[in-house]
Amino acid sequence: MKLLHKDGSPEPFRIHAHWDHCRPISQEFPNAQAFFGPGTKDFCSPGHLESGQPSDEIEWDGRWFGSKQHVTEDWSEFEGTWVPWGTFERALDYFGDGSLWVIDAPGHMPGNLAAAVKLQGIDEWVLLGSDCCHSMPLLRGTEEMATYIGQDGELKAYLQQDIPAAHKTIDNIRKLQADYGVQVALAHDATWLIEQTNPVLMSLLDDNKKGACTIKVHPAYLEQLTMGLRVGVIGPTGFGGSYLCVELIKRGYAVRGISRKPENLGQNPAYTPYSIDIEKGSFEDVVDALKNLDVLVNEYGPHTAGEHALQYKPFLELTRKIIICAKAAKVGYFVMVGGCGSLHYPGSQFSTCADTKIFWLYYRRGIADSHAHVSYMEERLGSMGTSLRDYRNARLAVRQGKSDPAAEKLIDKYEHAVMSNDSALEFVTAGRTSFMFFDGNASFRWTYVSPPALYRSGVRTGSYTLIEDELPVKPAPEGHEESDLTGRLHGISAADLAIAIADEIGNEKLLGKHWSAYSDMSDDTPTPSYVSL
């Protein structure tokens, strides 16, 4: 890592002592000084090549750690006051203003360092993790540290000098992500560079380096990197699941479709169908279905069985089962796709959409205002969609001045039923309650996405806006109550929500968060509710 002092003086380098991180710098930066972590000199001296000849027994470069006549590089160990920072016990405030912390991160080798940088202008922290661990799957916990039994009979790790210390450092980084929202860049993990979907990490690079991310990577290596992220999708042939699978495969991820008939999505080299009835299968069978996944997306929804399948208890029981099995299978990141019922209703501190009766009237009116949304409901929910079409037609007649007693009676009857006991209330309330499995739960890594109220099939705009915890709504007109949602509900297409979820899979920016996304829904052209490969 290269940085400039604030006064413009020569560049200091912060590194650990392996060759791939401390190649001699004097020719490129003759005035630079390198800084290593405490304990480096004792561990690395004398260095390799000190005699002028290579040695198989010494792995440290003599140009750094040899005797004075052989040393060519200017370096020293960090000194100063080390204090706790975040989840780490020892850190050094390098500039004295809290913008850059050099972190003692033992495990890989004595003197191994990481650095935490506060990015100017966007108020985000990034941990430059060096070789604290060597891959995101290892950091997520979906892969184990590579170990072997040494000649002395002791357990050793190929890439870590001190196994317990390395595990502790990795755990500290995980907690930084979960508890503080810190972004992480590892020295030997290039997936974020290739995907270019994490805006915080990409802000570390100038335009030339961003272009070099893809230009200089061999295609075979690029394929290996992207295909290395293994994503399971429960419900791959359903509404949201089918759009998500297609989006993930476009990005080069290896996707495992998990359902009773996952083969119905189609065929693709990056898609593996895994047939299982999650509802009826044993816990052990479901665990097997979820093993060796970096990410699991739960897109389960019984909608294809019709409105009578939208029940409270079965959905919650199955959600509990999936969470238990995902934890047992050591899934690295759990993405739960719930419903808008858990989002906070505007103007209320405690009430969610599912708790607020008047929401259902605004919701049904918002759906009825869209030909595309009514068409989507007809395709997915049968009679519920048919009655909605009749309601839409009656409302249109009133707006066009063609109202008659029959139309007005139909509207009154429909809205009375909505306010009394909307047919979707039970299932949406189940979605609201399912969030309680996640809220404040630090026993596994999760994110919970609640689609906005007007979530339907639609065009792929390629853009979206994120919001946390709150129902996405348009600003209230002047003189209107904040709780009046007439004409103010936001929506998103399944294609655009798939983009938002795929982005989150790649950057994990919303770890431990409850969020929604919305996009431009002005195009009211009906599109298919399900897609295939």
UniProtKB/TrEMBL annotation:
GO terms for molecular function: oxidoreductase activity, acting on the CH-NH group of donors, NAD or NADP as acceptor. Residues 235-363 form the NAD(P)-binding domain. It comes from the Eukaryota. Gene3D superfamilies: NAD(P)-binding Rossmann-like Domain (3.40.50.720), Ribonuclease Z/Hydroxyacylglutathione hydrolase-like (3.60.15.10). Transmembrane segments: none annotated. SUPFAM superfamilies: Metallo-hydrolase/oxidoreductase, NAD(P)-binding Rossmann-fold domains. It holds the Pfam family NAD_binding_10. InterPro entries: NAD(P)-bd_dom, NAD(P)-bd_dom_sf, Polyketide_Oxido-like, RibonucZ/Hydroxyglut_hydro. Belongs to the avfA family. This is NAD(P)-binding domain-containing protein. It comes from Fusarium proliferatum (strain ET1).
